[in-house]
Structure formats: C-alpha cells, structure tokens
Amino acid sequence: MSKRTKNVDVAGSETELTAMTRDLDDLHHDVAVPSMWAGVSNMIDGMRGATARPTSRRVFLMGTGAAVASGAALLAVGSTPGLAAAATRVESHLHLADAAFPPAGLEGDLAVAAVAASLENLAVFAYQSGLAAATAGKLGTVPPAIGTFATTALSHHTQHAAAWNAVLKSRGKAKVTVTNPTLTPTIQANFAKVTDITGLAQLALSLENAAAATYQAETSKLKSTAAIGLSASIEPVEMQHIAILYYVMGMYPGSQTTAGTPIAFSSTSAAA
Predict the structure, then answer these.
(1) In sequence order, which residues have a C-beta less than 8 Å from that of residue 250 and are 6 or more positions away?
(2) N or C: which end of the chain has fewer CB atoms below 10 A?
C-alpha cells in the first residue's frame, strides 16, 4: 500500500509522487533536453545565416552547462529565504533602467526569448524560496517526496532559463536575470501568504499555468521554425509539472469550477 503523507494537507502518496517525479526527470533528460538543445542550436544557426558554420553540440553543451551553473548562483536566494527579498533585489535592475520589458533592442523571436527567460527566472525564485521556507520549518511537516519534486522542477526551470539566455548571448544581447515584471508582484504577494505545503503547491500551480499558457500563446508569434521548436520542447515540461501539482492537490485537469464550468487543461487565459 502506498505511504500517505502525514501532518500535511496534501493528497496522493509519497510513493506515487516519487515515481512520477522520477519518470518526469527521466523524460526531461532523455527527450526534452536533447530537443531543447536542438532548438537552441538551430535557432542560433538560423540567426547567423545559412552560410554560418553549424553550432557544435560540444560548444553548446559547455556553454549551457556554464549558464546553468552561473544562473543557479545568480538566482540563489542564499541566506535570505523568501521570494519578496529575492524578487525585490532583482527587480531593482528594472527600476534603475526604468524601461519597458522586454529590454529595448529586442524584437521578434529575441523579445520572446527574453520574456521566456524572465518567466523561468521567476519559477526558479519561487521554488528556491519555497525550499528555503520548508528548510526553515515555516511550512510544517514537508514530505520528502514534495522536496524532491520541488528540487527537480527547480533544476528544469534553471536549464530552461539558460537555454533562452544562450540564444540572447549568441546575438550579443545581455542575459535576462530579472524575474518577469508582469507576474512578479502577484507571485510576491501570494508567497507572503503561504503558510503550508498546500499553499505553496497552489502558488506553484498558478505560476506553472502562467508559464505554460505564455509559451502556448507566444509560440504562435514566433517567426522561425527553430524558435517554435525550442518553445515547443519546453512547454510540455511545464505541463508535466502542472499535472503532478494537480495530483499533489488531489485535483485533475478539466476539474469543475464552483460554477460548474470545466477548466481547460491547456488554456492561454493565464498568459503573461
């Protein structure tokens, strides 16, 4: 019999959640990462022109590996747990520039890349902050399987941000290290109200829904097939995160609202 979580209002079982997280991560590394690499490589080569030398897998992987490591360091909450402090520090860059987002000089696919990177940065902050709060004992008893899922999702979002920033860097543009300015205030305010794992799962679900919806909405605006391929390689991972969070909360895609209206599993209504 599956082991049920105790002392915390979370549906499902730790055994099942652990298995789903393992399958999610295996699929991510076996399918999503190679597809994501191909999308970034094709996008970079397409922007350089048909006569450019193809980007080598080794060079890309070295660059992305460094980006993941540096991204984790840049986005680390460190000794200041909580999204509020982290987001305020990062948002200050936007306030100092006093500029619209995406940054000036970014158009078309590069503008979409900047928005996508900012969304992934926000997801990194949210999961890091949740893990920090859990470690500090602010969320009550936290089942190990929940921590494993959060850590896994955090690693995925860090890699996604690195992929989009690799595209920007290839065009001589600055990496996007800020969190998405449209969603940050809402996530920041909601995180301040989180007192348990259920609340954190609800927050993560709202953020993952917004990210997936934005990818779906923005993919139709991308100009190159390479950019479409990159976006399409990432959105399914966000959707898999959503499916697991629904399970954690005892909900299901297509569940009814209080008004009796079905909820679409892949809607663009929450797009940033």
Answers:
(1) 11, 12
(2) N
Q: Is 4 helix (H, G, I), strand (E, B) or coil?
A: strand
Closest CA to 201 of 26, 33, 1, 11: 11
Give the N- to C-terminal CA distance of the chain in Å, as an integer.
Answer: 41
- Token pair, residue 179, equals 């969190």
Using alpha carbons only, give the angle 37, 213, 211 rounded to the nearest 5 degrees: 60
Report which secondary-structure segment, H or E, holds 225. helix 225-248
Rounded distance between C-alpha atoms, residue 263 and residue 48, angstroms: 42
Q: pLDDT tens across 133-144, in order? A: 999 899 888 889
- Contact present, 212 and 235 (Cβ < 8 Å): yes
* Reported pTM: 0.76
Residues 79-113: pLDDT tens digits?
333 444 444 444 433 333 335 678 878 888 898 89
| Residues 251 and 242 sit within 8 Å (Cβ to Cβ) | no
Q: Which amino acid is residue 102, in one-letter code?
A: P
